[in-house]
Amino acid sequence: MKVTIVGCGNMGLVYARAFLRYQIVNADSLILAEKNEQRRDELMRLNLGKVTVADTPEIGDTDLLILAVKPQDFSDLAPKIAPYLTSRTTVVSIMAGITLQQLASSLGTTQVVRAMPNSPVELGLGMTGFSAGTDVLVAQIRQVEQLIATTGRTVFFEDEKMLDAVTAVSGSGPAYFFYIVRAMIEAGKEMGMSEAVAATLVKQTMLGSFHLINNAGKSLDDLIGTVASRGGTTEAALREFEKYHVHEGLKEGMKKAEQRAGELANLKS
Ligand SMILES: NC(=O)c1ccc[n+]([C@@H]2O[C@H](COP(=O)([O-])OP(=O)(O)OC[C@H]3O[C@@H](n4cnc5c(N)ncnc54)[C@H](OP(=O)(O)O)[C@@H]3O)[C@@H](O)[C@H]2O)c1
After folding, report:
1. Contact, 135 vs 225, CB < 8 A?
2. What pTM, to 2 d.p., does this model score?
3. Which residue ranges form the domains of the chain, and what is each CATH number?
4. Residue 73 alpha carbon to ligand 1 centre in Å
5. Ligand 1 mean position, distance from CA 7 (Å)
């Protein structure tokens, strides 16, 4: 299989490394198309694949083409690569807010897949939701899934509209988590801990609790109940959270993110 990555910044590089690590492709079958000259020099030094620019016929000589430029660069890029694309190539876009319909009309191919990864892909612990144009065959979807799975877990959505929710839940999700962790560390400091000690307590608590979610065989309500005994400290904290509408606030914030994802996609159409 031949794979081309167009736009080899942060995300493009993550994918290149992940594909090679899992031997989905070897460096001979990987093309890295990058506009930025300095970045191209860096990529050449890394020796991950053949380094080139996007507006070259060889861009079409590929089974899978990953589009990892910023969404605002897509309108400039699309006419440069469209003439070289044929039905042989499945295009996978990770650009936030560019719809399947926009991809198909700008690139002149219906072999399009839209994926929404999140930042832990960098560690192979990412979460990516993806959706495909109706002309993309199941075999192609499987191939794309195999590629994306090198960066973490994947979920396929028949309905592209769900990618707005994916953006709100897992795409932006790492920031919500960091926000909560930061608040907990600040609280620890306000109780007299040093930042380092508070951070150690909070990070280890998050890690251990995450594993309990997956391995304790209990519901979230049961897990909360196990820690929050009646009249105790945790219950006092949870009551205060309710007073400040933390639960509702988080949910409402996420719904706003979903709405914004839809608005941004419409703005670009
Ligand atoms: N970071 C995340 O967690 C995350 C999550 C979900 C989705 N995404 C999506 O991932 C995409 C890439 O994000 P990123 O953070 O990796 O961006 P980035 O670091 O800016 O990388 C994009 C690269 O593409 C290059 N480029 C621009 N136009 C090009 C062209 N015509 N041909 C070839 N290369 C071109 C840019 O060069 P210049 O610097 O010279 O412009 C840059 O090196 C975005 O669309 C974003 O929406 C990211």
Report:
1. no
2. 0.95
3. 3-159 (3.40.50.720), 173-264 (1.10.3730.10)
4. 8
5. 5
